[in-house]
From TrEMBL:
It is an enzyme of class 2 (transferase). Pfam families: IMS, IMS_C, POLH-Rev1_HhH, zf_UBZ. Keywords: DNA damage, DNA repair, Magnesium, Metal-binding, Nucleotidyltransferase, Nucleus, Transferase, Ubl conjugation, Zinc, Zinc-finger. Its cofactor is Mg(2+); Mn(2+). GO terms for biological process: DNA repair; error-prone translesion synthesis; response to UV. It catalyses: DNA(n) + a 2'-deoxyribonucleoside 5'-triphosphate = DNA(n+1) + diphosphate. Its EC number is 2.7.7.7. GO terms for cellular component: nucleus; replication fork; site of double-strand break. This is DNA polymerase eta.
Length: 690
DNA sequence: CATTTACAGACC
DNA sequence: GGTCTGTAA
């Protein structure tokens, strides 16, 4: 593993907000333009400047008035104001559009901001390298610069000497792909961008800024030394602020070249281990930080400042502004819910206020159970009132911020089942709404952790064999009769996929929270029976360690399955899967995972039941279900009706899950659940052999 | 009185 | 969980 193994691209949109405005109003193109927010004070603050305006000396940071003075013909476009506040929606949306294009090149995409993203294109580059039949042409990297040499020289060097430099060849293919990426972005969105191509994120970012706009720059490892010779420290990402400044102070240096002179030991004297190593490496152009897949932000927030005399004094003004902020937040959260299938569970309300002439910042969190602007506003006002309402009934608030976070996946589980291998790990299969994938949750009993695999049934047929093997090894001999053979699977495509297709078409219903008796075991807290007592004295029972209920011994295994399934469901150990193309295997800690003993007299492999439920019902002795109009075996009919109840119940559970933030009184969950349970009888019998 | 806003992460 | 800091556009 070498630090030159990866090929990283940083795509940076050129003066993005200006481009968005130019595309909306093409008459602006080619003319000086700046985007400003607020026009009340000196023509508003400039947040983006296009290149013609930059040529005239206009910069960010300036007020609109100042820009007009420098460049009288400049167009000043105002950020739309919604609720008396800058509304950046159209730029965020434009950014998403760009990200969607970038995503078609690699799943290893990390959005760094609204207009920047890192891509790890190592795999694509490797493929190109292996498939290559001829040398890379200059025409393939028309808009490319190379740090340290002319692009033609760079290409020539790749092929001239006998020893073909693998790292540089890969960078060259990286440049080819980056040109394609940028062409695709332009073609599909109308926006130009610049790009940096290097072996790591820091260098890619640095390179992208070297030639703009609408160009790209390769920074080979061999170009680092000369580039760093006179490179100010603050040009390196994360050294632009206080830390960079302290480096200058502490070490008496201003350029990267000077940083190289410090040994690891020197640096460790002054900084903690992590920082010292990072500095040591970065001085040599080495950075091992991975591109972490992230397409959506971890939090969504908005804020508003009230500088100087605009500070909020009256309760009315405070209420007004938290109302506006709350409305904006809810609007954005609802859009996020649509787009990303997730719900924020927490809001942080923060503010700065004046206490004896000092600015004091404070924040408090409160739970978020529904996207209700009024609720958020009321809760926030209660907090603010409590913390900074002065004795005379006034406030002195300089800024307010709302931030929503603690996102939870909120897709419904549409199917869940679990099974054992005779001496292997516990497995649960879960199918999520709006996904062609099933998850396999492997609970490794011995190590108390489980891995979470996501399998795309469209692409990976071998996983089905894997299921089958597990079942064949299990004690139940009948299993293999119930599972399609490999040949059958190949003619039908994916067996599971077919199953879920059928499910969609209502050929058969998913086994929902299978194999447990909801009348007794749905929620541990719902149980009304005294521990240790049994409903049916004739049946030998055992005390469940989980819920302290007496469970018939014959049902104990499935009862425990149920606890685990519920637990897994509750624990929300979902990783975001929608963007993972094929298979991800992710080791996870699961300290709460309960140990369960392995024994040889396992109950029938539950997977069999899962699969059995997919067998087409063509028998004569069937009856049509009034609820789903499907033909059901007469012998299964009662249980089938139970199934419908279970499905309802399942919906409720999913609903409850959505509302299960910490502050929801448990009694509510309980009563809601209990109500359904009371209607319910045995669900498991549907999946039991007749 | 004036950059404002957005977001992440570290520390306790 | 609360607060503060850092970063960057």
């Amino acid at each position: 593993m070498s630090h030159t193994d990866r090929i990283i691209v940083l795509v940076d949109m050129d003066c993005f907000y200006c481009q968005v405005e130019e595309n909306l109003n093409p008459q602006f193109k080619g003319k000086p333009l700046a985007v400003v927010q607020y026009n009340t004070w000196r023509g508003g603050g400039i947040i983006a400047v296009n290149y013609p305006a930059r040529d005239r000396g206009v910069t960010r940071h300036m007020r609109g008035d100042e820009a007009k003075r420098k460049c009288p013909e400049i167009e000043l476009v105002h950020v739309p104001s919604v609720r008396d506040k800058a509304d950046l929606t159209k730029y965020r949306d434009a950014g998403k559009l760009v990200a969607a294009v970038l995503q078609t090149f690699t799943p290893l995409l990390q959005r760094a901001s609204v207009d920047e993203a890192y891509l790890d294109i190592t795999d694509a580059v490797t493929e190109r390298t292996n498939m290559a039949t001829r040398e890379i042409q200059r025409s393939e990297i028309k808009n490319t610069h190379v740090v340290g040499c002319e692009p033609l020289e760079f290409l020539y060097s790749l092929y001239s000497s006998g020893l073909c430099e693998d790292a540089n060849l890969k960078l060259a293919y990286g440049a080819v792909i980056a040109e394609e990426i940028r062409a695709a972005v332009l073609q599909q969105t109308g926006y130009t961008c610049s790009a940096g191509i290097a072996h790591n994120k820091i260098l890619a970012k640095l390179a992208a800024g070297l030639n703009k706009p609408n160009q790209q720059t390769v920074l080979p490892q061999s170009g680092v030394e000369s580039l760093f010779q006179n490179l100010p420290l603050h040009k390196i990402r994360s050294l632009g602020g206080k830390f960079g400044h302290s480096l200058t102070e502490d070490l008496g240096i201003t350029t990267m070249a000077e940083l190289v002179k410090f040994s690891e030991k020197d640096l460790k004297k002054r900084y903690d281990e992590k920082t010292a190593i990072w500095l040591y490496n970065i001085a040599r152009g080495i950075d091992l930080e991975p591109v972490t897949i992230r397409l959506v932000s971890k939090s969504i927030g908005c804020c508003k400042t009230f500088p100087g005399r605009s500070a909020l004094i009256t309760p009315q003004s405070v209420l007004h502004w938290i109302g506006e902020l709350g409305a904006e937040l809810v609007e954005r959260l609802e859009k996020d819910l649509e787009e990303n299938n997730r719900k924020a569970r927490q809001v942080t309300v923060g503010f700065t206020h004046d206490v004896n002439g000092n600015d004091i910042s404070t924040s408090r969190v409160h739970p978020l159970n529904s996207y209700n602007a009024k609720k958020i506003t009321d809760d926030s006002y209660a907090i603010i009132k409590k913390l900074c309402l002065k004795a005379d009934g006034t406030f002195c608030i300089k800024s307010i911020s709302f931030n929503a976070g603690k996102f939870e996946d909120c897709r419904n589980v549409t199917a869940i089942t679990s099974f054992f291998k005779s001496d292997g790990p516990y497995k649960t299969i879960r199918k999520m709404e709006a996904s062609e994938r099933v998850e396999i949750l492997n609970t490794d009993i011995d190590e108390e952790n489980y891995s979470n695999e996501t399998v795309d049934l469209n692409e990976d047929a071998t996983k089905l064999t894997f299921y089958k093997d597990n079942c064949e090894n299990a004690s139940d001999d009948s299993i293999t009769d119930e599972i399609p053979t490999v040949e059958e699977r190949s003619t039908k495509g994916s067996f599971f996929l077919q199953y879920f297709e059928d499910m969609k078409n209502c050929q058969h219903e998913p086994p929902v929270l299978r194999d447990f008796d909801t009348s007794r075991n749905l929620e541990d807290d719902d149980l009304l029976d005294t521990p240790g007592t049994s409903k049916d004295e004739d049946v030998p029972t055992e005390l469940c360690e989980e819920c302290h209920q007496s469970i018939p011994i014959s049902e104990m295994m499935s009862h425990k399955d149920h606890h685990l399934a519920l637990q897994i469901d509750k624990e929300e150990k979902l990783t975001r899967k929608s963007n993972v193309p094929t298979i991800t295997i992710k080791a996870k800690e699961n300290t709460k995972s309960k140990k369960r003993k392995c024994s040889d007299n396992r109950p029938n492999c539950t997977l069999t039941k899962f699969l059995q439920s997919t067998v087409k019902l063509q028998e004569e002795n069937t009856q049509e279900c009034p609820q789903c109009n499907r033909r059901i075996r007469k012998s299964d009919f009662d249980d089938h009706l139970d199934y419908h109840v279970a499905k309802e119940l399942h919906m409720e559970i999913n609903d409850i899950k959505l509302c299960s933030a910490a502050n929801v009184p448990k009694t509510i969950k309980k009563s809601k659940t209990t109500k359904t349970v009371s209607k319910t009888r045995s669900v498991i019998s549907f999946f039991k052999p007749s």
